[in-house]
Specification:
twelve-stranded parallel sheet; elongated; binds 2-acetamido-2-deoxy-beta-D-glucopyranose; Pectate Lyase C-like; single chain; 19-stranded mixed sheet
Length: about 400
């Protein structure tokens, strides 16, 4: 008994001192100084951090730095924090970034933290101006600001992603990944600048985060499981979307999403679920719960769209094969820019099941907005607009 207590105390002391002993790795050690290009300095600092047997903290102090694409790859030996107070800017021309997919890449790392008051500025204006992907399927690829690929037990806090050329952040194959106090800022008319897109990931949490951008604030792709979105502000932007889904047979189900305490201001959509008609995918979407949501001048506050077909890229001859079930919308208030504040357009091939509406108070021009329902019979709890046929 005596011995095991002593051992325990020793173990805790060691653990605590182990954390305290995180070593700082200033990028200046590798020649990274303000007003220079720190691509090589950060790459070298990462190599040292990744090889370190004790936890380490790469420090980029205040100042402005230029940087081309950096690939921070694991596996590493101990936890790593990247602490950035400076502003890091990408080359304006996508061709000069050095990676056509992602500018700041973190891959195969366990226990990663990104922190500080820093700004990652993707300088996207030139890329947005030349973006013709709406009409040209062979359009040039432009890099996203951040790619987190197969990262586990990670936290991204307090930094800002600004003016990405493409999606701001892509989360792929990650587990236990938290954004807390994160910021995303791009103009409302910037093209394809989704805030955070995730797919094939489990336990992604987006907390206390403000997103203003030109496309979806958050988009939840196939294989996203146990996602939490809490205390988020979105606008301008296209809202929080699940999907689009159904294009591919290889997709995995979307299961478990809680969206709570979110404000949408002047966004195209609020809460959206979208699947493609005449498409082969069958992976279901289930257990999505939306609660305590404020809508301020939102075009489509609540929208399930199983006939999603932008730019006439498809036909609507055959219904979507995706089943949507166990979805609740509770305490959703504010103003809609259309009369149809609630749109539940489900698939005739797989009608929605267990859809619940509770305490929906959406106004269009001062009058209650209506709900348009197709292939769904929502359960109403408390106050909600009655369904009219589509
Ligand atoms: C999730 O990641 C955080 C941050 O690294 C860590 O503190 C926490 O213990 C992890 N949770 C689990 C269940 O592994
Ligand atoms: C988000 O915006 C609100 C309101 O302007 C502000 O109080 C909060 O500090 C912001 N949070 C972040 C992470 O910027
Ligand atoms: C609906 O979703 C909730 C939350 O994920 C879950 O606890 C519940 O079991 C689900 N209900 C059904 C019938 O699957």
């Amino acid at each position: 008994m005596e011995l095991s207590t002593t051992t325990l105390v020793l173990f805790i002391l060691l653990a605590v001192s182990g954390i305290a002993q995180s070593i700082d790795i200033p990028i200046a050690k590798f020649g990274g100084v303000p007003n220079s290009d720190i691509t090589q300095a950060l790459t070298n600092a990462w190599r040292e951090a990744c090889g370190s047997a004790t936890a380490s903290k790469i420090v980029v102090p205040g100042g402005t730095y230029r940087m081309r694409a950096v690939d921070m790859r694991g596996p590493c030996k101990a936890p790593i924090e990247l602490y950035v107070d400076g502003t890091i800017i990408a080359p304006p021309n996508p061709r000069d970034v050095g990676d056509e997919w992602q500018w700041v890449k973190v891959e195969y790392v366990d226990y990663f933290t990104l922190s500080g008051s820093g700004v990652f500025d993707g300088q996207g204006a030139m890329a947005w101006k030349n973006n013709d992907c709406g009409t040209n399927s062979n359009c040039a690829r432009t890099p996203m600001n951040f790619g987190f690929n197969f990262v586990k037990n990670a936290v991204v806090r307090t930094v800002t992603s600004k003016d990405s050329k493409n999606f701001n952040v892509n989360v792929l194959g990650c587990q236990n990944f938290t954004f807390d106090g994160f910021k995303i800022a791009a103009p409302g008319n910037s093209i394809n600048t989704d805030g955070i897109h995730m797919g094939r990931s489990k336990g992604v949490r987006i907390l206390n985060t403000n997103i203003s951008t030109g496309d979806d604030c958050i988009s939840i792709g196939d294989g996203s499981v146990h996602t939490t979105i809490y205390n988020v502000r979105c606008g301008p932007g296209h809202g929080i979307s699940v999907g689009s889904l159904g294009k591919y047979t290889t997709e995995a189900p979307v299961e478990g999403l809680v969206v709570k305490k979110v404000t949408f201001s002047n966004t195209d959509n609020g809460l959206r679920i979208k699947t493609w008609p005449s498409a082969p995918g069958t992976s279901p979407i289930s257990n999505l719960h939306y609660e305590d949501i404020t809508m301020i001048n939102v075009r489509n506050p609540i929208i399930i769209d199983q006939e999603y077909c932008p730019w006439n890229q498809c036909n609507k001859q055959n219904p979507s094969k995706i089943r949507i079930s166990n979805i609740s919308f509770k305490n959703i208030r504010g103003t809609s820019l259309t009369k149809e504040g609630v749109n539940l357009i489900c698939s005739s091939g797989a009608p929605c099941r267990q859809v619940k509406l509770g305490d929906i108070d959406l106004k269009f021009n001062g009058a209650p907005a209506v709900a348009v329902c197709r292939n769904v019979r929502p359960t109403v709890v408390g106050r909600a607009p009655p369904c009219v046929a589509a």
